[in-house]
Amino acid sequence: MVTDLVLLIVGLVLLILGAEWLVDGSSSIARRAGLSEFLIGMAVIGIGTSMPELVVSLTGALKGSADIAIGNVVGSNIFNVFLILGVTALISPVAISSGNKKRDIPLNIAACVLLICFGMQYTLFKVGGSDTINALEGGIFLVLFVVYLLYSFRSGKADTEEKEEGEVAVPKKLWYSIAMVLVGLVSLVYGGDILVDSACNLARDAGLSEKFIAITILAGGTSFPELVTCVVAAAKKKDALALGNIIGSNISNILLILGASALACPLSFANIKPVDLGMLVLSSVILIFSAWSGRNNRIGKGDATLFLIIFASYMAYLIMTI
């Protein structure tokens, strides 16, 4: 058990470092291409910080642990909004543009609804033999992800509402940025493999379900890159980058990560409770309420406090239902 705990920590460290190198390298390349701050946050850093979730979920699917794949994504999206965005908004209010209201947040909600429709098609519509995301549906997720990327870059370049302010970081040399991306990917793959193996072993030794480990320990650990990125962005008053990171990560988690995982192995929703899916939907819907009701189009400290209370309540529910 001690060995598995050490390996779990090593895996988390490799994931965090790998994500940091990947994000830094990708951001440097993106800045050379002249992309906006929000677009970097959503389509580059958001996807980059979702790489730990991708590796953990895909590795879990390949090893036949569907609970790891789905629970990690569901837990990560909940962590991203209620914990990470809550902490970020406590440090500095997060501005929401009209583009976020009309385009980005609704896309996040649509991805959540589509996930539930695919994952619970038999329960909801009496279609199909079981509540499972199969390879075809995974392929649809990946196609939608590509469309989402193309749309993001097209709309991001055309969006004139958000402009860079203050001093812009000087991009690193191209060869160095590419090297960071490659080293980051290697660290993510290796760290994810170690993390899944050790987490499953610990879950069995402690008598806990893989879903509980995935939604709590794995989701929290693989969400560290988003947390660090958003806290740093908030401290530097780069709230557009922070919000883009959250929205981009959540959409990528569903379309890219579960899409790729479903291609590797069908993903069953049998052990995902209605409360878990309810929290997932709430994590996307609550952003639209905060956006339209927020003072001066910002997620302020009041919203942040509510987010953190909801997150704490959900964690307490998970502990009580072990």
Task: Give a verbal description of the structure.
The protein has helices at 2-32, 37-48, 51-62, 66-91, 98-119, 121-125, 135-158, 174-206, 210-222, 224-235, 239-264, 274-293, 301-320; strands spanning 94-95, 132-133, 267-268, 298-299. With 322 residues, the protein is mostly helical. The protein has one domain (36-54, 64-166, 209-320): A middle domain of Talin 1 (Up-down Bundle), CATH 1.20.1420.30. A two-stranded antiparallel ribbon has the order 1-4. Mean pLDDT is 80; it is low at 160-167.
Radius of gyration (Å): 19 Å
CATH topology: A middle domain of Talin 1
> Which class best fits the helix and strand makeup?
mainly alpha
Secondary structure: helix percent = over 70%
Order of helices and strands: HHHHEHHEHHHHHEHEH
What is the count of structural domains?
Answer: 1
